[in-house]
Amino acid sequence: MTFKLSDIADKLSKRGLLVTGPDNGNATVTSLTYDSREVSAGTLFFCKGAHFRVDYLKAAQVSGAVAYVSERDYGIDLPALIVKDVRQAMPIVANYFYDQPWQAYKLAGITGTKGKTTTTTFLKKILDCYEKSVGGKETAYFSSTLTYDGVDRKPSALTTPESLPLFEQLDHVRQSGIDFLTMEVSSQALKYHRVDEMSFDVVGFLNISTDHIGSSEHPNFEDYFQSKLRLFDYGRLAVINWNTDYRDQVLAAAEASSSIEEIITFSRDDSAADYWVDEIRADDNGQTFKVHHGDEVEEIHLGMPGIFNIDNALMALIMARAYGVSYTIINQALSDAKAEGRMEVYRSEDNQVKAIVDYAHNKLSMEQLIEAAHSLFPDHLVWVVTGSAGDKGQSRRQDMGQVIGQAADKAYLTSDDYNFEDPSAIASEIAQAIYEVNPDAEVNDFIHDRHAAISQALSDAQELEQGVVVLVAGKGSDAYFLINGQKEDYQADTDFIQDYINHYNSQK
Ligand SMILES: CC(=O)N[C@H]1[C@@H](OP(=O)(O)OP(=O)(O)OC[C@H]2O[C@@H](n3ccc(=O)[nH]c3=O)[C@H](O)[C@@H]2O)O[C@H](CO)[C@@H](O)[C@@H]1O[C@H](C)C(=O)N[C@@H](C)C(=O)N[C@H](CCC(=O)O)C(=O)O
Ligand SMILES: Nc1ncnc2c1ncn2[C@@H]1O[C@H](COP(=O)(O)OP(=O)(O)OP(=O)(O)O)[C@@H](O)[C@H]1O
């Protein structure tokens, strides 16, 4: 793809974003980036970001950038497009440059405080099953864990990429002739215009709860919530969890959107929703339930436990139905659906050691995890091994501490991705929140080494007459630990517990 700089300037001008420039628009643009390390001859370079330095622009110039887009004029000898808002400019230019790639396939976008990755995984599984049945291609997905765009399959850096890499990935999906793309849409993406210019066939709103509030994310809950609601500006069909907190505001935002043509609601227990569920039967390996929609009743088997996963399954099911996928295919896909590191149940052969590894690391997920553990293991004590990440979502410490204090029987506080913070100080904040709601709570002394904390909890549990299920929360199947800005290798909690149980079984 090649474009004249003047055409790009024209686009920005028509959208009211161009302030000045360029003096000479004859240059040909052959690529876009905001990272000086990716610049080559013909690149249009975007200056953005809190940590941006003029040296990056100079480096871009040396590497062959033909011009730059920026909110300020750096006065260097390179054509400049000065814009009102560089983050708004990026998707407009990218959409023009890649020629609306998202139009070439069916596109679903999912948001929510919790369940985005699981729901994206479920929908991809269903759509892959469908494509297999009609001789189509593996479907694309952009989740916080993995990205597959038909050209690259790679771990994801962000839940939703910044608009320049995002539109490149969207273009890859089109080039690959893929029929479906399912993606997570984060609140940061909505706040910072990453998905501007896109139009989703279907958008889904799972739930909303306090999270992502902190120095590097949202200043307060309202900012977080309003960012999430913007998803409705980009979709045609809206699928909404009837049981979400702030339901009236969520429904009102969907109704107020000029792009939304239809709203479908679902609930795991309330027949007031369009799709609703009853007769839930669950065990370690999954759950079976009946889905009602008007006069239709379908029995669904989902290969994952955790009642909250029914919400995720319903969202995926409704989106798939909107695409015309049959219940037979949906059932086939969901019956062995799994989301790695989420609600993974472990038991020793003699049933003495019981653990669940889960990715819960905020208020809503911790509440749901503990509730799910109580319902899967009635009459058991529920112990939680957890920490909380450093340098982000600081409110999680207070939130999770309160939930643990109210709903769990004991806490083992340890490290999570503490990054530049002190994990013992993070643990103290969690402990304080636990004691605030439950002064008699049992909280083990902080154990820095996460594996040691898990082992301690599992072995202490074996000492008790009463059954105990140990919830290992926060990192799921992450095979790294984020410390001082670097990802260090780590044996994932899932693998560690499997080894622990294998060793235990072999000793018996
Ligand atoms: C360090 C930091 O906080 N960065 C955040 C910030 O990025 P920024 O645009 O200000 O960029 P920056 O990191 O200050 O870097 C400055 C610029 O210099 C450029 N550079 C840098 C080095 C160099 O040699 N040459 C060069 O050109 C960089 O490419 C960048 O463009 O503003 C962006 C707003 O879109 C954030 O995405 C991004 O957060 C980092 C990457 C991050 O981890 N963000 C998280 C919070 C995030 O976005 N999470 C959501 C999930 C959470 C949710 O549900 O909302 C997600 O979608 O993943
Ligand atoms: N629908 C749901 N409602 C409440 N909690 C959920 C739901 N789905 C999953 N969870 C909890 O959240 C955890 C993370 O799930 P998942 O990765 O699907 O969410 P996410 O929205 O992608 O999270 P993140 O924003 O942290 O990447 C799960 O391990 C589980 O504890």
UniProtKB/TrEMBL annotation:
Major subcellular site: cytoplasm
Subcellular location: Cytoplasm
GO biological process: cell division; cell wall organization; peptidoglycan biosynthetic process; regulation of cell shape
Gene3D superfamilies, sorted: Mur ligase, C-terminal domain (3.90.190.20), Mur-like, catalytic domain (3.40.1190.10), MurE/MurF, N-terminal domain (3.40.1390.10)
Annotated Mur ligase C-terminal domain residues: 341-476
Domain of life, per lineage: Bacteria
Residues that coordinate or bind UDP-N-acetyl-alpha-D-muramoyl-L-alanyl-D-glutamate: 36, 159-160, 186, 194
Modification(s) after translation: Carboxylation is probably crucial for Mg(2+) binding and, consequently, for the gamma-phosphate positioning of ATP.
Modified sites of kind N6-carboxylysine: 228
Pathway(s) of this molecule: Cell wall biogenesis; peptidoglycan biosynthesis
E.C. no: 6.3.2.-
Gene Ontology CC terms, in alphabetical order: cytoplasm
Alphabetized UniProt keyword annotations: ATP-binding, Cell cycle, Cell division, Cell shape, Cell wall biogenesis/degradation, Cytoplasm, Ligase, Magnesium, Nucleotide-binding, Peptidoglycan synthesis
GO molecular function terms noted in the UniProt entry: acid-amino acid ligase activity; ATP binding; magnesium ion binding
Cofactor(s) needed by this chain: Mg(2+)
Pfam families the record matches: Mur_ligase_C, Mur_ligase_M
Domain named Mur ligase central: residues: 110-320
Binding residue positions for ATP: 112-118
Record-stated family: Belongs to the MurCDEF family. MurE subfamily.
Its job: Catalyzes the addition of an amino acid to the nucleotide precursor UDP-N-acetylmuramoyl-L-alanyl-D-glutamate (UMAG) in the biosynthesis of bacterial cell-wall peptidoglycan.
Protein name: UDP-N-acetylmuramyl-tripeptide synthetase
